[in-house]
Design a protein that fits this description.
By secondary structure, the chain is an alpha+beta fold. The protein is about 35% helix and about 15% strand. Strands 4-3-2-1-5-6 form a 6-stranded mixed beta sheet, with helices on both faces. The longest helix is centred in the middle third of the chain and has 23 residues. The protein is globular, with a radius of gyration of 25 Å.
């Protein structure tokens, strides 16, 4: 198991590459805007601040501004950055020392310590911001100073000269984050490694998991033990028919009397997240119908996985998985054999059972930026696809096809369309409703020659049965030993 202080060997002795990230944004912005020159452009971004709860003396969980973190690697609340395009100088501005707070919370990171930890040319306190602006920019009225927003900018003079919410600046930020560098990939691999252990722990501990919330607790416990102080998103822990709810949030139902479990959860490490989904049988053995749907989704994922490489169009891979699902549904009798695969495909029938996209970009956000989705697309095959571009080396994405039996999806995508309804054998369909759904999700790096799967926890149904059964058998042995 990964320990809480374990750091990948490749990262030891290296700082988060903040300066190269700033340079990347600079190059993209200058390429996008012919009217801009390095001599009079800068970036100033104020990071997030600690926010308290209303009518209470405790604070909300802190989450750093992702763009700020990308350009600094700094997770200290109340910090800011100044990057000068002319000389590529990066200044990290830390909050002033609150001496009243020191007696309760201890000393914050010193400027000297911060200089050693962060990839910045200068580190100063907020009280020295005016001096930094004068030193770096001189007459700030002659500069175009871009920022994300003005929310935490408290210097009124500076605020008047900032350019917030510029679409070209955000385009540069997003495109810079699209291709991960070696440092980011190492962080993501470590996050994936932590998640592997967590998913294995959940599969192995079913005897003590009698409720969905206990599945969530098991995953979170093992993530924290390995140094992941938070998860990348609210985990989805569902059982039985609830497995058909794509973004299930209850995580509170008992497991008794159900056959299937779906857990979609990923650990976050150093602000970068993993995103993994696994499904397994509660009693250690897939039912006939559960196994059939599981193997359908596994085939969808496997066929898409084989084509992940630079130059591949994600739309095409997504459509391939729909065609694989259609073929399996015909074999299972869920779709009537009176209709051809092509006819069923043209009618969009499979959207009632697989409404979401094949996958999405991943990094500092679980649904990372620069995917270029089009949620106004009238075609149900593509409307909810978060990634709509050709793959490039350095992209990190999820491969996560699914198949769901959800009455609301069936109502929305099937029953409103007579030409789709007539394709489905309703009596056969009823046999699969208890499963809820299956999704298999892995985290993938697009490499120069193909891809690398960072997710190592098995998705083989036979291996999954062995893991779950071993946990159940161990529990029975321990029970008999006690009595």
């Amino acid at each position: 198991m990964v320990g809480p202080n374990d750091i990948p060997e490749a990262l030891k002795g290296h700082k988060y590459p903040a300066k190269s990230h700033n340079k990347k944004v600079k190059d993209i912005l200058l390429k996008t805007r012919d009217d801009l020159k390095s001599d009079d452009v800068a970036v100033f971004i104020a990071g997030e601040e600690v926010e308290g709860w209303k009518y209470c003396d405790t604070d909300r969980d802190f989450r750093q501004n992702r763009y700020f973190y990308y350009l600094t690697g700094c997770d200290i609340p109340g910090s800011a950055l100044l990057y000068n395009f002319k000389n590529d100088n990066l200044t990290l501005v830390l909050p002033n020392i609150d001496w009243d707070d020191v007696i309760w919370s201890g000393l914050p990171l010193s400027l000297e310590e911060a200089k050693k930890e962060y990839d910045a040319d200068d580190v100063v306190h907020m009280k020295d911001l005016e001096n930094v602006l004068q030193k770096q920019l001189g007459d700030i009225s002659k500069f175009k100073i871009y920022t994300t927003d003005l929310d935490n900018v408290h210097n009124e003079t500076l605020k008047k000269h900032l350019i917030p919410s510029d679409k070209d600046f955000f385009f540069a930020l997003d495109e810079a984050r699209l291709i991960k560098d070696w440092y980011e990939l190492e962080v993501l691999k470590h996050a994936a490694k932590i998640s592997d252990t967590c998913h294995l722990a959940v599969m192995s501990a079913l005897p003590i998991e009698l409720n969905e919330v206990q599945i969530e607790a098991e995953f979170s416990y093992h993530a924290l033990r390995q140094g992941a102080r938070s998860l990348g998103y609210d985990p989805i822990c569902c059982s039985g028919p609830a497995c058909g709810t794509l973004h299930y949030i209850k995580n509170s139902e008992d497991l008794a009397g159900k056959s299937s479990i779906l857990i979609d959860a990923g650990a976050e490490w150093r602000q970068y997240t993993s995103d993994v989904t696994r499904c397994f049988p509660i009693n250690g053995k897939f039912t006939k119908e559960h196994r059939e749907i599981y193997e359908t989704v596994l085939d969808m994922q496997t066929q898409a996985m084989e084509l992940i490489k630079p130059g591949a169009n994600w739309d095409d891979l997504h459509i391939l998985t729909h065609k694989v699902l259609i073929k399996h549904f015909l074999d299972l009798g869920i779709f009537k054999k009176d209709f051809s695969e092509e006819e069923i495909f043209q009618r969009r029938v499979s959207c009632a059972f697989y409404p979401h996209g094949l996958g999405h970009l991943m990094g500092l956000d679980v649904h990372d930026c620069a995917g270029r989705p089009n949620y106004e697309d009238p075609d149900p095959y593509f409307k909810f696809l978060r990634l709509r571009r050709t793959l490039e080396a350095g992209m990190v994405l999820t491969n996560e096809p699914g198949c769901y039996f959800n009455e609301f999806l069936i109502e929305e995508f099937l029953k409103k369309f007579p030409e789709r309804v007539e394709v489905v054998d309703q009596e056969v369909l009823k046999k699969y409703m208890y499963i809820g759904g299956v999704r298999i999700e892995d985290d993938i790096i697009v490499t120069e020659t193909g891809h690398e799967n960072m997710t190592k926890i098995t998705s083989d149904p036979d291996e999954i049965e062995k893991i779950v059964s071993k946990g159940l058998e161990r529990s029975r042995s321990e029970f008999h030993a006690l009595v």
